[in-house]
Design brief:
It is a single chain. The protein has about 800 residues and is of the alpha/beta class. Among the domains are: about 280 residues, no CATH class; about 180 residues, no CATH class. About 30% of the residues lie in helices and about 10% in strands. The strands form 6 sheets. It has a 7-stranded mixed beta sheet with strand order 10-9-8-11-15-13-17, sandwiched between helices. A 3-stranded antiparallel beta sheet has the order 2-3-5. Strand 9, helix 9 and strand 10 form a beta-alpha-beta unit. Pfam families: DUF3405. Keywords: Membrane, Transmembrane, Transmembrane helix.
Amino acid sequence: MSSRDVSGSHVGLLSQEPPPRRRRFFSFSYPKRRRRFSRYFTCIIATALVVFVLFLLHLKSLSEAQIRLGLKDRPPPPPPPWEEFPFLKRYHGGVRTLVPRDANKPEYPDPSKELEIGKKKDAKQAEAGAQSDKQEQPKHKRDEGTRAEEANHKPGAEAPTDAFSPTKDAGPSSGLKRCFLDADDEIAVPSLQMHHGVPKGMPDPVMGSYDMFGLQNTGCFDRYGRLGPYGLGYTRKYGGSGAGMEGEGREAAMKGVWGDKIEIDYRKINWADAQARCAHKNRNRFRQIESSRNDFFTAMPQGSPSRELDTKTGSQKKVGSRATPVKDAADKIPRTAFLIRTWFNYAYDDEDIMYLRALINELSLVSGGEYTVHFLIHVKDDNLQIWSDDETYQRVVDNALPPEFRGMGTLWSERQMGLIYGGVAESMYRDLPVHGVYRSTYMPVQYFAHLHPEYDYFWHWEMDARYIGHFYELFEKLGSWAKKQPRKGLWERNSRFYIPSEHGSWDDFSQMVRVQTEHGTGSRGNMYHKMASDPKHPDEAENNRPETPIWGPLRPSHEQDHFEVDKDPVPPTPYADDKYVWGVGEEADFITLNPLFDPDKTNWILNEDVTGYNTTDGHPPRRTAIITASRLSRRLLDVMHRETALARHTMFSEMWPGSCALHHGLKAVYAPHPVYIDRRWPTSYLAAIFNNGRNGAAGGARASVFSDERQHNFLGTTWYYHAGFPGNLWKRWLGYKVDGDGGEQEEKAGEGRMCLPSMLLHPVKQVDMIYEHQEGEETEKQSWGGGE
């Protein structure tokens, strides 16, 4: 290096090259600046999350408020305990396994087989396990109990039948003259055929009793013995229904019904004429039959109602200018109108028609005219001019009934009831008119009774009720038993279900009711009490206090609601002094087939349907009987008619007759007829459920079985408005399959046709029968209806 190169300081700054730039590396930072989109997107997401959280909190507060107010749908309740009970099997026993009633060991009630509530395995699992065990066991290792059970139900020969008629002992001294279907007195319906005994294991009724009423309980009826006289089992070509032709054992059964006689051709029968001839032939057995009152509503006649004889108070009848004395009626038989409620476009099938033939023959003709069957036909079209044009009325009433029943119908409409019972406040309870058939079923019955003084009693019946047994025997036994009942403790007994396996005899039951009423039920020694009670409504203390027994009229609290009370019956002695004498021998004014319960404090949804009464301090005393099938006296219907027309009082249909009887001190009786159930309920649990109201009654408390949320307990019984068991049992008895069980093949391979004791069934709807058609027959099932 020379001395000139020792340093670069001699070079100018501007002439020096800049040093190279060092490259920067961004290992933890963005190479570019953040964009605005990212910031806006983040803000939007955050805002949405905040709004969503606030919305959820708002919904939570609204849901909690709805739950507090009872507006929110509650979660579905658990299935009721009775669904775990096993089904009873021996209702479907056949005619090849009959045993005498006294020798029968009923499948139910059987205390030794009652299930315990709350055991670890439910009933269904236990039954399934037992079935699987049986399948695994070889036949030769089955135990003695299984072999004995099979031997008990092993089919044998079919038992013979005998004719059954409740009036067969009536001789010439009774004055009863036999009635026929034709004017020549040649055609008569044969007697029912009854088998002696019942199928082995046939259950007993869980409620009510045969022996108490004197109803026959020694035999059973198969379908041909019961309905064969009315068209079942022979073809339409010969005037039958054409149904039941394929049934097992039909030929032998029909020979037992008809013998050497020719089957009746029902196409040629007019039941209205047969009824009229029968009543005329036996007219000396009844008090003088007065003609119906003039219908001043439509007739507009000259004169006034005062010119017509009131057969209850008058002793003479004006016929022109002559006065004819009326013979003393003390020894005469009262007459009863049997009113069947139907409507103008009801479609009748052959099963309905056989049921109606049985009703008319067994009540009217067999009784010698004691009963007369009428159809109360509801014309739902208020614009049909049935009241102003005779031709329209005749066309509607003719088209409303099958040809063989024409001449037996009476038309009515809701508009007509609104005119007759004008002034009744229109409350539109549950959006239904007060004069409508649902809320005021008895209005046309009241007016019918007003126009027909020849009848003393009126049965109100429905098209979907059936009876396996003889109708005349049933209604006569019910009326006779009700007549014997003393009034002391009557309303209290009326309010409870009678369960013989728990309550013992009727006398024991009556004594129990007296103690419960007078002393209360402060403690219940029942293992099912906790299940039957409702912990959300702890009203047990009030429901268990002693009550004052009803003795005489129990009137509304407001005197302005009292109406024509001067004629009301008055107890002859104080309650404590009566020795169960008052009321014995007195005909019942009201007979029901379900308990007359107190709807107060229950959750029965119609308990507040009260019109025309002062309710500022609460509702008037009321009593309700579910299902309007009942017998009413002329005295009760007259009270109901005048209360509605003049005092403008009325209540819901099933509450109105019982409440009128309560207010006016009339005799009302619940007749505990035999009721069956389809499952093996422990009877103590059943009694706790069905009599779970005030002091062991069926009503008077929220825990009542008639409260809306508890009526499911009736589904397996044979008598309730929405029960499912009656229809299934009736169809199986007719020989048809139900849910895959029953039918012709099962009858042939098993025990034969089903045979059931006398029992009431309700409801029975839409029975689709199988018909056999032959050459020359009509090919379509006949039906009538449609007022135009």
